[in-house]
């Protein structure tokens, strides 16, 4: 019964505040104003409101509350400065050392350092800071911050932030660390839902050799096993150059995707090489060929559809997310937390930017160009067309040889960083300063960048080095990761306030890394991409943004639908996703592709397990383009890179205005694609 009542309100119940909290607060208000003066009234009101909003009976009774407030309110500038400075320093030490512990615990699994034992994985999965926020509420350090510094909403940051001083920004970022008090069991439920849906997605393979057509023909080679949706989509891209079977393969994959979205896919064909499947007729038979180590077909050759598991998983992530709503007063839905806190751009504005791309007049012009290059009318899967690729002047083998000679070891790359940075326009002393803060390690995987979280620690660049030396692909990734490390160094070590360290959101750190990565050939002393290559890249990026903007709108509308229908069943959610996918398609794609009611926009796996993450991609493309264009205009990367990275964690629009003079938006991308249309034919 309780469950029903909660869900019919669309959110869980508000956590119980102690009965005395209002009278206790009013009493203190008068007392503190008398003590510190009228000038402190606004701070007192706000501080008391923030503390009482999170205070629970378990934190202590009214006497404890009153005593706490009297002791910890900093009523004059000197004590406030001392408090601010101490928290800045000690939080840096806390977060910084936690980060160092985590990095050490992951060392064996992250680095190319021999076999990984089962206990290594347990160490790697252990997060020493998992309970930090809980602990800081329990020992009341969080309340000290909430009593003295302002938690601000996105709206306040947007309307007033431009007038704030750096210190004011730092104070609200400091308070922001404690803007939520989510109980451990709620966090656990959220990560459990995330892990379960992630597990579901990670095993969703299609055995391609077992896809058969009406004549029993197999288009795909034995053993090919593709994960939905990433590998399936990449296979569509890879099939363009195949003149014989490319189109038939692409159409087959499109049908498979449609079966997944509608959940008419037979459950027996998921990750199962023991059956053959014709996705067009939906017929399932015991496999006629064997291309795996699995035992001979024990043959569940039935075509019972998957029972809407896809949508049940998505619903579970929604239900778990909703549990946190009452504990997050300034962002009381997952949608608000994603847009107002993580991205810090209002949802309506994000939606507008996406619509601007989707309904841009250059879309039909680029579509016509693709059609001309393909020599056939567009088909729906051409939203993944990837033919705008410049031909490299150098072969992969030539590049491999150059890189291997230069970088036989990770150490050799590390020693070269100062010189690489100077080639990018950094002054010698700046290059030296940054390089001194970066350690290069040999990575087990393809590579990653791990920033420090306190100034006395170093950023780590993890790169893959083969026994024969680094290859070109490894170098390309290393340059990208180095971009991250350089940003991390400036936005931590060169900051005026610790609480402002970083960039507004992940799209910015990626954009800055791409600025480096795009110049990798220059760094090797080779000819950099020409006008034609730049134009192709602009068209490629625009088309990719056009595709993912539609997918993102589906993701956004689906989350709203779930919040509007908290009691929905998986079947109802499936029908809603189908409806929303069709509507977005018919509005923005049908006019170009001339086919109605296509469901491909609903295939993304992130939509199922990533909690409204998809809008980050189109935003990332736009931000990267804006920043790249600015760097090109400036001519040299170094000084501008440092200047923009040192702005810290402002809102995206404020940061971008400081960097380029304009707010975040698709204009730079659209303009570049339009120019490209007169260059590429
Ligand atoms: Zn990156």
What would a concise description of this structure say?
By secondary structure, the chain is mainly α. Helices cover 58% and strands 4% of the residues.
Tell me what the structure shows.
There is one protein chain. This protein is mainly α. It is built from 31 helices and seven strands. The protein has helices at 2-8, 21-36, 41-54, 62-72, 77-110, 118-125, 132-138, 141-148, 154-160, 166-176, 184-202, 230-238, 246-262, 309-323, 334-343, 347-358, 362-374, 396-406, 410-423, 428-435, 472-493, 506-517, 520-523, 531-564, 570-588, 590-593, 606-609, 616-634, 637-645, 652-660, 667-677; strands spanning 205-207, 225-227, 275-278, 283-286, 438-442, 447-450, 459-463. Helix 2 packs antiparallel against helix 3 (41-54). The longest helix is centred in the first third of the chain and has 34 residues, at 77-110. 41% of the residues are buried. The structure holds zinc ion. Residues 480, 484, 510, 513 line the site of zinc ion.
Helix content: 55-70%
Output mean pLDDT. Answer: 93
How many E-type strands?
7
Report the major sheet.
3 strands, mixed
Spatial strand order of the main sheet: 5-7-6
What is the beta-strand fraction?
under 5%
- The N- and C-terminal alpha carbons lie at a distance of 65 Å
Note poorly predicted spans.
Answer: 1-13
What ligand molecules are bound, each kind once? zinc ion
Q: Which secondary-structure class do the elements indicate?
A: mainly alpha
- What general form does the structure show? globular
Q: Over the alpha carbons, how many angstroms does the gyration radius reach?
A: 27 Å
Q: Helix count?
A: 31
